[in-house]
């Protein structure tokens, strides 16, 4: 019989794999940007925000904050590198106004992260207190990120069309939230459980909407495509 720790490890590895592919989901967008040598109408905000989100989850998963969370560190570390790559591409192909905006946002995130690390390691002692502070901040950031598909879902309901809500991205988001929710449930971790529970619920709602409006969708409708920013994984917090 498989013990709980082994099950948790296996689930965490599966979660790493799913989250990794979710991190790679915007690659077609950046191929377009590189080919056009312009960011066109795409926005850097989700990627800049995800940089901080990944950095916070890496800090959360370190042994000095929350022990036995190596798999949280690995996927968010990889995600951090991928998101930095996306932001770099945005920076290279943006105008000076956008570059200034990206630079200021990254400086703010760096200062914020430094303050959080300093307060956590200087004034908080013990895993419980450190996990609480960093975990609550991670929940807040993830909750904000999970509000992003609300506009897409509202559009689906109003237009009765799922043309611009990719099915496989919604399905993968649901799978990602479910697997990390299970991971957090085995060795009870409320700070990991809450955002992934929201991610699981968000993905489920998207799938229900897809099933409801799929047959009503006019796939030949000529409409200007816009980038759909569904949350790309809770990243174990992605």
UniProtKB/TrEMBL annotation:
It is found in: Cell membrane; Endomembrane system. It holds the Pfam family MtN3_slv. GO terms for molecular function: sugar transmembrane transporter activity. The keyword Disulfide bond does not apply. It comes from the Eukaryota. Signal peptide: none annotated. Mediates both low-affinity uptake and efflux of sugar across the membrane. PANTHER family: BIDIRECTIONAL SUGAR TRANSPORTER SWEET5, RAG1-ACTIVATING PROTEIN 1. This is Bidirectional sugar transporter SWEET. It comes from Olea europaea subsp. europaea.
């Amino acid at each position: 019989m498989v013990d709980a720790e082994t099950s948790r490890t296996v689930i965490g590895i599966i979660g790493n794999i799913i989250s990794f592919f979710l991190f790679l989901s915007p690659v077609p967008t950046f191929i377009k940007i590189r080919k056009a040598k312009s960011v066109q109408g795409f926005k850097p905000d989700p990627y800049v925000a995800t940089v901080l989100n990944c950095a916070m989850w890496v800090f959360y998963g370190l042994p000095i904050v929350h022990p036995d969370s190596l798999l949280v560190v690995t996927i968010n570390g990889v995600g951090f590198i991928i998101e930095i790559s996306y932001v770099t591409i945005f920076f290279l192909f943006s105008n000076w106004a956008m570059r200034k905006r990206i630079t200021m946002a990254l400086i703010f995130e760096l200062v914020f992260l430094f303050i959080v690390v300093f307060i956590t390691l200087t004034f908080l002692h013990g895993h419980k207190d450190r996990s609480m502070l960093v975990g609550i901040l991670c929940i807040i950031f993830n909750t904000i990120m999970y509000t992003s598909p609300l506009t897409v879902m509202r559009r689906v309901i109003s237009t009765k069309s799922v043309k611009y809500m990719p099915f496989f991205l919604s399905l993968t988001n649901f799978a990602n939230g479910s697997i990390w929710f299970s991971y957090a449930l085995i060795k009870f971790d409320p700070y990991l459980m809450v955002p992934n529970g929201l991610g699981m619920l968000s993905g489920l709602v998207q799938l229900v909407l897809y099933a409801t409006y799929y047959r009503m969708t006019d796939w030949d409708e000529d409409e200007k495509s816009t980038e759909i920013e569904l949350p790309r994984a809770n990243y174990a917090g992605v």
